Each structure stands twice: as structure tokens, then as C-alpha cells.
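Weekly modeling sync, notes
Attendees: S.R. (lead), two postdocs, one rotation student

Agenda item 3: backlog of single-chain predictions. S.R. asked that every request posted to the team notebook include the full sequence so nobody has to chase files. The rotation student volunteered to paste the first one in as an example of the format we agreed on. Action items at the bottom.

Example entry:
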Amino acid sequence: MPDLAHEALHAGPVAGVDEAGRGPLAGPVVAAAVILPASGFPDGLNDSKQVKPADRERLFGLLMQCAVVGVGIVEPEEIDRLNILQATMKAMTLAVDALGTAPGHVLVDGNRLPRWHWPATAIVKGDAKSLSIAAASIVAKHTRDQLMLAAALDYPHYDWASNKGYGSPRHLAALRDHGPTPLHRRSFAPVARAYLSS
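Predicted structure, as returned to the notebook:
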């Protein structure tokens, strides 16, 4: 389980940063930055993929009450313009900017850091090691899931309520049958093929 060992290595408020939505064919990439309070944060923080949706929703609500949270969102059109890696780096930068307070250090899930002015450390599988990154993982995942659930009402054929924009068989079949939507990432191969055949 993640702990605060990485946070303890740095002075000042430490923000954890993680993203959700690098791999889907549709929808935005969402990053979150979270500065946990010294005490009183919820139990059960972990890599969002290891947390059930109902528990993610509960933890999200508790984090929004007790922590300093920033969210950054980059939409599909900009993902196509920048590429998904650079769009993810931008979303992370927007998330830290949105904290409204300058962190003393930033812990980022993964092996790359955005080009920014904050001192930062990249931690591979950080959402399973750092509580701050785990908290950011939950905020990013829940936020993006809610966006895709809302989009599913407008585009019901693609089963986004279930697949959240990932390339599930039902999503791919709908992409072939109905063509891409404005929320699809044109630079991703299955979507590009659907554009060529439409």
C-alpha cells in the first residue's frame, strides 16, 4: 500500500500528480494534483485501478473536502494537435497550476516530468507507492469517468458508460458502424481508419 515515505523526503507542501485517459480512443486526458493535509485524510487511498468505482467516488468526495486539489483537462482536439504524451504533460501542468498554491515539491507518477519550474520527482508506479499520487490517481480517474458518463448520454452507441472511451469490442464496432464523433481522437489509429472508411 502507498505511504508518505516519498513525501517525507521533501520540504514544503508536496503535491502528488497523476493522470487518467492516455489510452482511450475518445474523450479528454485528465490530470490531478493533490496536496494532502498533515492528518485527517481518508483511509483506503491507492492506485485508482485497485479501488472499486463506489469507493473511488466516496474517496473523491472526502479528498475534495480535506485536500488541496487541482485538475487539468486537455480535450481530444488538442491531444491530436500536441500528441498524447505532450497533452498529458500539459494536463499535469494545468493541474498543478490549478492548486492555487505553489508546492514545495511535486511527485509525478511515471518516468517523465513536464517542463515546469517546480522541483519534482518522477516515480514509476508512484500511485502504488505515494499516498499523494494515489489521491491524485483517484481524483483524475473519477473526474474523467464522470465526463465520459455524461458524454455517453449524447453518444449512446459507443457504450462509453461501460468502456469510458477505451477500445472495447463494442466501442470499436460502433466506431465502424457509426463513424467517429467530435470526442474521438483522430490521431489514434482505429479512429483514423474509421475516418478513412467513412
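Discussion: group reviewed the output briefly. The beta strands are 14-20, 29-35, 68-74, 105-109, 120-123.
Action items: rotation student to repeat for the remaining queue; S.R. to check formatting next week.
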